[in-house]
Amino acid sequence: MNKKHLVTLIKKENLQIMRDPSALLIVFILPLLLLFLMGYAVSLDAKNIPLGIISKSDSSHARGLVESFRGSKYFIVTEDKNKEIFMSMIQNNKIKAILEIDGEFGRENSYKIQLLVDATEPNLAGFIQKYVNSIISLWAQQNNIITAYDTKIESRYWFNPPVSSRYFLIPGSIAVILTMIGTLLTSLVIAREWERGTMEAIMATPTSMLEIIIGKIIPYFTLAMGSLLLCFLVACFWYEIPFRGSLLILFLMGAIYLFPALLSGLLISVFTKNQFLAAQISLVSSFLPAFLLSGFLFEIENMPDWLQVLTHVIPARYFVNSIQTLFLAGNVYDIFLISIMAIIVIGTVLFLCVLVKSKKGIE
Q: 343, exposed or middle or buried, with CB in 10 Å at 0-12, 13-18, 19+?
């Protein structure tokens, strides 16, 4: 490899970046936008759930329990004596659950409550049941109420004490952002070279195909690492997500992960040679799998078996797991080593594909 050729290609690519600020927008503005949406617009927590309460008892205990629900941040309470009205409202999706308090509630140690939940959204139904149980348990504890059916459970939440979806959404979104940036940058920039005819001029120079590939990757690798640093600072200091791992491992993992991300963009550009088509394929082949099949939002174990097998060839699966572990659990080296080996294998395959296809392109 000729170092002079490589340095010249890197300088040329840096000049191209300065002349066309779209790459800088992708690297720095797009991550901030996505982090803002993930932090504020996307939430898997449930709040302000419309709840209908039917209290058939006028006892002080019943009134106290109703007030506990009214004071909760999780529910918006509507009271009525007519159950049919609430049944109609739950069918029309105006409320999500009905809490019915028995007429003998608070008398002779009787505390009968019925909860009817709209389970068309199973996750939300689970949240409702959990929140209702928590409010009732807290109310019973405050009023020193003990029944034969009481079981006291003391819960401790490891790694995510506030039980906030933001704690795993933000670290996971960093992996998705790096995937999109790495793939989009190289796919659009190389495709632009093909459209303008400058790629043929580069290939006509004495530089080897390996030098061209490395010369294209290094400037965008540097930009993407800068984006990783920006995302890390926003996650820690803006969203106050705890970081319990090693910074060195974070940036090492990020650098290794960018290897297949940047190469997949190169491979797309070699095949398409068109910016619009390259952008569309980048979204379909990198962003969507990273978003849907990496474990970022949906548990891989809950997917069909054949889809679980498919996720093993998606690099984001390994990086999402590693970066969430780094933020919330700390340094778990067994996870990191497996992830690094898998990412390197996938990246090597992509590198060979780019090298072979590029050789064919100039023949």
A: buried
For the chain, domains (ranges, CATH) are 3-42+164-361 (no CATH), 49-142 (3.40.1710.10)
Q: Is the dihedral of CA 36, 188, 9, 195 positive or negative?
A: negative
* Sheet of 113-117, strands arranged across: 75-79, 49-55, 97-101, 113-117
- Asked if residue 333 has pLDDT above 50, the reply is yes
* CA dihedral sign of residues 58, 60, 61, 66: positive
* 326 contacts 250 by C-beta, under 8 angstroms: yes
The three-point CA angle 243-248-254 to 5° equals 85
pTM, two decimal places = 0.77
Place of tokens 């949240």: 127
Q: Burial-class residue 108 by CB neighbours within 10 Å (0-12, 13-18, 19+).
A: exposed
Three-point CA angle 233, 187, 26, nearest 5°: 30
Residue at token pair 């980048």: 282
pLDDT at 157: 66
> Using 50, 70 and 90 to split pLDDT, how confident is the model at 359?
low
Q: Which amino acid is at 210?
A: L
Give dist(CA 291, CA 342) in Å, integer. Answer: 19
Predicted pLDDT at 361: 46
